[in-house]
Structures are given as C-alpha cells and as structure tokens.
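Why do we care about 3D structure at all? Because function follows from shape, and shape follows, mostly, from sequence. That is the central idea of this module. The next example makes it concrete: a single protein chain, its amino acid sequence, and then its structure expressed as tokens.
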Amino acid sequence: MKNPSFYVLLGGLVAGTFDITYACTYWYLKRGVLPTRVLQSVGSGLLGDASLTGGGRTAALGLVLHYFIATSMAVTYYLFARRWPDLKAWTAMLNSTQVRLREPGLAAESGTTM
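And the structure:
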C-alpha cells in the first residue's frame, strides 16, 4: 500500500482538475468567459483587481492557487478522517444515498422528489 500522502495529493489533484474544468466550462458556456479570465479571478483573491490585467502570469498564479486550495481541502479531510473514523463511514453513506436517489424509479419509491 502506498503512503497516504500519495492518495491525499492525488485527491487534491483530481478534485482540483474536475473543479476548474467545470468552472471554466460553465462560465464559457454561460457568458463566453475565457478560462484565462476564470483563472485570473482566482488569482484576484490574492492580488485584487490587478490580477485581471496581469495576463498569463496572473492566470498561472490563479491555477497554482486553485490547486493549492484543492489539495489543502484534501489534506484537511484526511486529517479529520484520521481522528474521526465515523467521518469516512458517514461520507460513504451520503455518497451511496446520492447514487440510490439518482437511479430511475428509486426516488419515487423512497418518497423523495428530484
């Protein structure tokens, strides 16, 4: 078995990739906003409005910050889950509930509406 830090870093990378892909796709389809601008807006959390005029450098900074945040979230989850084992079971239960409710017919059987 690999070191837990491998999985934590991988989790941050995967979550960060899905999240930024979704954000860029959403804003491009909704308002025509280019991915560079989305990344610059992430960088504006650190640089303020100056990030929006910084070009590729501030977009790259936004990407680095985005992955730092996603990885920090994965590390935080890991640290809490180590000290609170029920968190893993609770998360697994929530995930399985979401899957069951999304399957056709099961939402009606369980009395919930989508």
